[in-house]
Amino acid sequence: MPEHRFVAIGTLSKAGPMGRIVRMAIGLAMAAWVIWKLRTHEVLTGMEFPASGIWIGVLIMFYFLSDVFNIGFNRRWGRWPQYSFVLLVAGAILIDFAQYGGFWGPPVGWLIHLMMVGVGGIIALSFLLSAILASPG
Predict the structure, then answer these.
(1) What is the dihedral of CA 27, 39, 55, 78, to 10 degrees?
(2) What is the pTM of this model?
(3) How far apart are CA 107 and CA 76, in angstroms?
(4) CA-to-CA distance for 118 and 115, rounded, in angstroms?
(5) Which tens digits make up the pLDDT trace of 72-113?
(6) pLDDT tens digits, residue range 25-58?
(7) DSSP state of 124
(8) Is residue 26 exposed (0-12), middle (13-18) or buried (19+ Cβ within 10 Å)?
(9) DSSP letters along 27-77, please?
(10) Residue 119 has pLDDT above 90, yes or no
(11) Where are the domains of the chain?
(12) Which position among 20, 49, 54, 113 has the lowest Cβ density within 10 Å, counted as fewest Cβ atoms?
């Protein structure tokens, strides 16, 4: 669709109604997922290794972990947030071996759970704010 607002080259126009509806839908869906994850934390934080489809969500949130810092917090850290999280998980695995005798226990589970809820909550909030403020892009 051609632009009729005669804005300067390189500027983005505000989101239209359809863009705002899509952003609001994604934000609400993500917020519902985060609330659901907060209520079902026993899956990750228990003593048994969760062998379910939850790992798809873990991988998706881990992928977006660096984007939360690079784009959301306007920091240019590259992949360092992901590397730091892997080091934290490795430390939690050592603690689990020392306390529980296995690689899976509450320290690793809580760390992964907090990463998922934190990243998902920030993404949900950013989509909701983008829909309310009609931000471009």
Answers:
(1) 50
(2) 0.80
(3) 29
(4) 5
(5) 778 888 899 999 999 999 999 999 999 988 888 899 999 999
(6) 999 999 999 999 898 888 788 778 877 778 888 8
(7) H
(8) middle
(9) HHHHHHHHHHHHHTTHHHHSSS---STHHHHHHHHHHHHHHIIIIIS----
(10) yes
(11) 53-137
(12) 49
What does the block give as tokens for 37? 């994850």
Please name the residues in contact with 135: beta carbons below 8 A apart, sequence gap of 6 or more: 14, 15, 129
Question: What pLDDT was estimated at residue 29?
Answer: 96
Find tokens 């695995």 and name the residue: 93
Q: Which two tokens stand for residue 126?
A: 């950013």
Within its chain, how far is the Cα of 127 from the centroid?
12
Cα–Cα distance between 52 and 9 in angstroms, integer? 49
Burial class (CB in 10 A: 0-12, 13-18, 19+), 89: middle
Interacting residues of 111 by C-beta distance below 8 A, sequence separation 6+: 85, 88, 89, 92
